[in-house]
Amino acid sequence: MEIQALRPIHFLTTLLLSVCLFDTASAQKLLDRDFPANHAKNDPYTDGGSPETMKAAGIINHGGFEFGSTDTADIDAFLANSDIRWLESENFQLGFALGSYKVPQKEKKEIMEDLTRLSERLPLVNPKTKVLDPWLRAHLTIMRLEDIYTDFLSIVQLEKTDFPDGSKAWNRKGMYMGEGPFLGQKGKYEVLLLPSKAVFVDFLNKHFGLQLDRTQRWNVVHRDSITLTAHTQHGSLRKDPAMHSHLGFNMAHNLYDGLRHYSYDTPIWLHEGLAHFMERRISPDFNTFDGSEGSVPIESKVKDWGAKVRGLVASSKAPRMAQLIRLKNYGEMELDDHFCTWSMVDFLYQTKPDELAKFLVDLKGRTNAEGYPDGSNIPDAHRDLFKEHFGYTYTDFDSAWAEWVTLAY
């Protein structure tokens, strides 16, 4: 079917810096040869789709749901050679089309820790395995996505029960909280991970009419779902930790867009700073940078962002909040802006976590006198809320942040 009700969130150009590593082809043994490899019957970790095992693991189903502009069946037919494993959890729908992954020694500790947690939900998982097969990687990925969701809720200091059930808009203590249960969205957050640029471009062109070759975020308006599509021929995304970090960065964007419903855009500096902040909580080794369509991607191998920010502050070269609030798209951001927006969110989180939570929530879900979402005069609203919650004018903030940077980093 053809769907026209689609709207982009932002054109995204991303680059992660590091050397690509293992992403070997899948050759997983089928449990039931009467079904394709991506069928629930061939998921060894849920015992072939056992309802009891799936319930304990928080897995709702293995496909048969709407996704992109159509559904999983249509995507399976269109990308017939991609062998997509589909998983649905409480808040996510995942399409995972990547192959097996040989765990490098230097990644073993972190991956084993995640597999150990996963084995508590899926007892058939061996935390000491040296090769992650496609089904295992899919389960690991959806667990990590739920971790990111939980981390975001902790930052904004909200509970899942704070949002409406989707039958109607719902107010919590007089606040508009969106249109549905997924932070305010009616639809779950979607993620599709593909093995090649060619397949990625084919998918985006068919579903969203795009001819882009880098990670893309998109708002599917008619289903009220926000999607993320990425492929492993981009930067260092063949590496498991790089993809994990990349998911943290992009889901920070999507989750904040969805908070109290995605009805309007919020300031560029805040979005990017929050995304860097959440990504670097996962790992400082892999960093994603947004850019606008047609802009030259920013590249940096710097890991110690704190030292860079300290140097910018010391030399009086750090951007001012009054400058950052005027950014209209990601292509206008310089590398130093990325370092500093991360640090600014870090500063607010470390020194005023309660106020930051209230600021993030109040900037979203604004309504007019009739009770409809109101995205007008966002720069003014940002300035007023900044003063209300943090007690800072922009000039005051610049000074307080700079003083903190010299001590924190």
Work out the number of β strands.
12
| Strand percent estimate | 5-15%
Order of helices and strands: EHEEHEEEHEHEEEHEEHHHHHHHH
**Helix percentage range:** 40-55%
Query: Distance between the terminal alpha carbons, to the nearest Å?
Result: 53 Å
Class by alpha and beta content = alpha+beta
- Give the strand order, joined by hyphens, for the main sheet: 1-11-12-10-5-4
User: What can be said about the biggest beta sheet?
Assistant: 6 strands, mixed
Q: Return residue spans where pLDDT drops below 50 for at least 5 consecutive residues.
A: 1-27
The gross shape turns out to be: globular
Mean pLDDT: 91
Any idea how many domains?
A: 2
Question: How many separate helices?
Answer: 13
Radius of gyration, whole Å: 21 Å
Descriptive overview:
This protein has 409 residues and is of the alpha+beta class. It folds into 2 domains: 6-265, no CATH class; 305-408, no CATH class. Helices cover 41% and strands 11% of the residues. It has 13 helices and 12 strands. The protein has a 6-stranded mixed beta sheet, sandwiched between helices. A two-stranded antiparallel ribbon has the order 2-3. A hairpin with a 2-residue loop joins strand 8 (171-172) and strand 9. The longest helix is centred in the middle third of the chain and has 23 residues, at 134-156. 46% of the residues are buried.
Protein traits:
409 residues; 11% strand; two-stranded antiparallel sheet; 13 helices; disordered N terminus
In short:
This protein is α+β, with helices and mostly antiparallel strands and 409 residues long.
